[in-house]
Amino acid sequence: MKYNKWIFPFLFLTGFLIRMVFVPNPGFEADMSFWKSWGLAPYDHDIVWSMFNTNNNYPTPFAYLLWIVTGIYSLFTNPHNYNEFWSNTNLLFLTLMKLPAILADLGIAGILLWFSRLSLDSRNGVNTSQKNPTTVWSIILVSLYLFSPISIFDSAVWGQVDSLGVFLFLCAVVMVLTKKPFLAGAIYMVALMTKLQNMIYGPLFFLFIWQLVGFAGLVKAIAGSTLLFFLLNIEFLLSGNMARVITSLTVNYDYFPYLSLNSYNIWWIIAKGNGMGVSDKILTVGIINAKTMGLILFASTYLLTVVNQLKKGASSFFLSLTLVVGAFFFFQTESHDRYLFPAFVFGLFWILLFVNECLTIKDRKHFWTTAVFQNTVIGYILLTLLYFLNLHTAFIANYPKNGIQALLFLNTPSWTIPISVLLTLGYIGFLITRCSYLIVYGGVILLAILGLNTSLFLKKPIFLTKLSPIHAEQQYGRLSINMPVNAKAEEWKTWDRLSTQYFFYPTGLGTHANSNIIYHIGKRFTKFATDYGIDTEAGNQASVVFEIYGDNKLLFQSPLMKRFDYPKHIEVDITEVTYLRLVVNDSGNGNIDDHADWLNPVLKP
Amino acid sequence: MRAHQKLATVRSMKTNKNLDQLIPLFPLVSIGIIVILCIAIVASYTNTANMQSTVILPGGVTYTGK
Predict the structure, then answer these.
(1) Closest-approach residue (CA) in chain A for B32
(2) Beta strands A471-474 and A568-573, pairing class
(3) How high is the pLDDT of residue A132?
(4) Residue A83 class from Cβ within 10 Å (0-12 exposed, 13-18 middle, 19+ buried)?
(5) Beta-carbon contacts below 8 Å between A and B
(6) How far is B20 from chain A (nearest CA, A)?
(7) What is the pLDDT of residues A495-515, one digit of tens each?
(8) Which of A18, A457, A484, A499 would you label with A39, given CA atoms 20 to 30 Å apart?
(9) Which 3 state secondary structure label does DSSP give B24?
(10) Is the CB of residue A483 less than 8 Å from the CB of residue A576?
(11) Where are the beta strands (DSSP E) in A263-351?
(12) Which residues constitute the domain of residue A333?
């Protein structure tokens, strides 16, 4: 008797049941409570209200999903039963909230199954009319995803929705492959609005559409995306609140300004395993800070992948997607632990296409015996295990009770750094071996680094405002660059240009006592020169003292400065200084009217 | 040539093997796995239901009910 037709139902059912075993785990409790808060608010009020009255920092339509989950929850029990609803062991909520991601896991496996059965022609995309006769590929790919510790952990244990975002994106890709560009564009927007990370695939995705369906297809796809963008945000559009939608797309920028948010990447290594304890405004090469360096590396890699995709074909597309996700995770600062997840999905599609490309038609029939298949899959499994350790350790760093107790010992730099090194080397090795034009790639990075350091090489002074502080605190308003402190407080706006007693300055820092601003200058400069004074916008009671510290040693203290004093000038020696600290104190009489400016502050190499 | 064809045939036969040949007693094994997983699910739900729970509220500007 043949049981072959039962293998896929068995694999899918097993994959589902394994996940259900982990559903009762309280998961990442902060995330679960955010889902509750962001779902209960639209349930009680409406979507627009919820976006203005919670700290929901996801794209706006994601709130609909949470609202639906809360709505289904309310069919069984009252979500206003405070202790029951907000309990970390709320089994009903855990089940309902983790189900979408679990079903998305099954959906991803389903798309892998569909894709692996297609006849492959990597030069022209996929011909959907012919079936690939071998089921072995399908079994391997579906199993590699369904039984991957990464996908099980992310969806069923953690309670995150990464797989939902990837699934929706893959649905859009399916639409491209079946030549339905309008739907492809529309579904892509749904994916983007569910998980913002899908935004980074945009250029590659639309390039793929252009390659496969032509320019007319590209236009249709853009039309589909645009239409869905407005449809998904219709409530905001009708109520005149589209600004909130835009905010939701940009609010995460510089939200956690640290080297690595538990991502085991190059910055985790540089931070010696303390990625969340080091600002990403520290200088790296010359005067380029870590964040900018990460952007240079990411942008250069993105360019490389676009060039790579010009070769056309689904193989190049999935390779480019995998590399872009990797660059986003490994090179950028402020990268979250979960950002690498999609690479392990796109990687499976790429493995199928890549191995088939490498083999002759005859060898494809017994592909699993070939070195190219075995090496690729072993590499994939090793990277999967390493990345699982990253995810799991990030999880237990917050919720040790909810993780695997036998792996708690991994939460120390002596383990996380070697894992980061292996993961990063795995990615860089993959990048180098799979891409052409590496010399141009390296050249672009080098040029960017040299270009941004021109002043330093030419020994020209640079404005302090070109650097970003690693720490800035003040008792009123926010640090303003090239503007007085009130320029950003619209209701009090007086001037938008720095000045002291009507001496106007184009450059400087507008702050307010008591303030403490720290720059990492990494011993790259010898002198620091600046003017200073009370801003003309300040009231008559202003009185402050300016202080400059180099590595916590007082280098300069000003006399008492008052509202009608003219600006003064100072130059201090900062040779061998790593941290330059600018302090404005209220001189002991309270901080009323103390609008203080550092004017034309200059660092001299 | 003949030897090569023979080799290819053998490999081809391997490809066409049925699951019951690859995994002896496939139905029994698969049903066994599914039953074990179902028991594990019940155990997992029971275990969490018996756990001491904590009320976890979201941090920051947020909403906890009417």
Answers:
(1) A14
(2) unpaired
(3) 54
(4) exposed
(5) 121
(6) 6
(7) 688 999 999 999 999 999 999
(8) A18
(9) coil
(10) no
(11) 335-336
(12) 263-454
What is the number of domains present in chain A? 2
Residue A379 three-state SS: helix
Residue B13, pLDDT > 50, answer no
**Same structural domain for residues A342 and A488?**
no
Is residue B8 over pLDDT 50? no
Q: Which two tokens stand for residue A317?
A: 């597309």
pLDDT value at residue A205: 97
Task: Report the pLDDT value the prediction gives residue A253, as an integer from 0 to 100.
Answer: 72
Number of C-beta neighbours around residue A203 at 10 A: 15
Q: Are residues A527 and A585 in the same domain?
A: yes
Spans of chain A below 70 pLDDT: 1-3, 119-134, 488-495
What are the angstrom distances between the C-alpha of A71 and each of A68, A74, A195, B55? 5, 5, 21, 21
Measured over the CA atoms of residue A488, residue A492, residue A495 and residue A500, the dihedral's sign is: negative
State the amino acid at position A220 in one-letter form.
K
* Cβ–Cβ < 8 Å for A288, A449: yes
Q: Within a domain: residue A61?
A: no
- Alpha carbon dihedral A90, A93, A97, A102, in 10-degree steps, equals 70
A417 and A537 assigned to the same domain: no
**Residue among A311, A582, A589, A282 at smallest CA distance from A436:** A311
Give the whole-angstrom CA distance, residue A228 versus residue A230: 5
Q: Does A80 contact B47 at a Cβ distance shorter than 8 Å? A: no
Which tokens go with A263?
């991502």
A491 residue type, one letter:
E
DSSP A196-255: GGGGGGHHHHHHHHHHHHHHHHHHHHHHHHHHHHHHHTHHHHHTT-HHHHHHHHHTTTTS
Distance between B32 CA and the closest CA of chain A, angstroms: 11
**Interface with chain A: mutation pick from B4, B9, B19, B33, highest number of A CBs within 10 Å:** B19
pLDDT attached to residue A134: 63
Residue with the two structure tokens 């297609």: A118
Q: Which two tokens stand for residue A597?
A: 């400016």
Preceding peptide of A265 cis, ω within 30°:
no
pTM of the model: 0.91
Clarify whether residues A444 and A309 are in a common domain. yes
Query: How near does any CA of chain B get to the CA of A11, in Å?
Result: 9
Q: What is the pLDDT of residues B57-66, one digit of tens each?
A: 988 778 888 7
Domain contains A412:
yes
Q: Radius of gyration of chain B from Cα atoms?
A: 26
Residue of A479, A503, A474, A498 lying closest to A489 (CA atoms)? A479
* Residue B14, pLDDT score: 47
Domain boundary among A392, A426, A454: A454
- DSSP labels, A476-523: SS--EESS-GGGGSGGG---SSEEETTEEESSEEEEESSEEEEEE-TT
Domain closes at, from A426, A454, A482? A454
pLDDT for the residue numbered B5: 43
